[in-house]
Amino acid sequence: MKLYPLQFEPILKERIWGGTKLKTILNKPITSDITGESWEISTVEGDVSVVSNGDLAGKSLNDLIQVAPEDILGTEVYRRFGKQFPLLFKYLDAREDLSIQVHPNDELAKKRHNSFGKTEMWFIMQADENARIIVGFKEKSNATEYVENLKNKTLLSILDDFIVKSGDVFFLETGTVHAIGAGLVVAEIQQTSDITYRLYDFDRVDAAGNERELHVDLALDAINYDEVDTFRSYTKDINQSNTIVNCPYFTTNFLPLEGEKIIKNNGNSFSVYMCIEGTFEIEFQNLRFQYKKGDTVLIPAALKTFILNGKASILEIYIS
Length: 320
Description:
Layout: E1 11-19, H1 21-24, E2 35-41, E3 43-44, E4 47-48, H2 61-67, H3 69-73, H4 75-81, E5 87-94, E6 100-102, H5 106-113, E7 120-127, E8 132-137, H6 143-151, E9 159-163, E10 169-172, E11 178-180, E12 184-191, E13 197-200, H7 216-219, E14 242-246, E15 251-264, E16 271-284, E17 287-292, E18 296-299, E19 305-318
Antiparallel strand pairs: 1-2, 2-5, 3-4, 5-12, 6-13, 7-10, 7-12, 8-9, 8-11, 14-15, 15-19, 16-17, 16-18, 16-19
């Protein structure tokens, strides 16, 4: 199987809080005014990405991994995770506030759902004026205080929030209570998991007048009640991989590309490039592959040397 940089059909998700920015800002082929998510690379059951470019178009990512796991995933990723693709890549458009929620850790998610936990990071791509996020508690809390405020509809009074701008990054370990606020477009990198415990949904109802399910009891022992530091600062040196997050689940670098940069990999892990701004191309074996803002590309681990060229802001992700 001859491998090359792989793109996938976006998996578009309607959400009660979604809008149209995935089309107007990221050029996604949405047909709904409430599209909240574009899943760029996924192997979540029922939502497995399908290749959209080149000779392998129409093949699912799981199909490719079954045939050539080390060539796709990398020797070290295959050793750790077997034939599982361990990350999920998304773009989100929050026209309204998302629900306040929390994700369980690996141990709890495995026990209850036979799933990975959901450590994640957000890169703010676009922010309306005064757009905010909610992350963690203002002060150390506990289950009793949390439940009391939930009952009294005063939960927001004990949660921390931040006004954000384009380029801000937040790293959320499992257990962190959080919500993306209205007016934000976000690139999200996370473990492969769709396990979310919804704590509070602002008393919203859907088109049929129904409130969405809450998971208050499940969340009690999943929440980290301590104060958390989620904001991540990073350098922006041109043509360098500037580390933003380096955790056991993924490494994310900010790469401001101007001109040409040669990439050499050791074959231990796949790489993913998310184009945050501008345009660039990848040159591999005398072939050129072009990308624009909102594109996401998977570089199989077997592609050990290639060239980036262009003017773009790129998120570079791999497992170290």
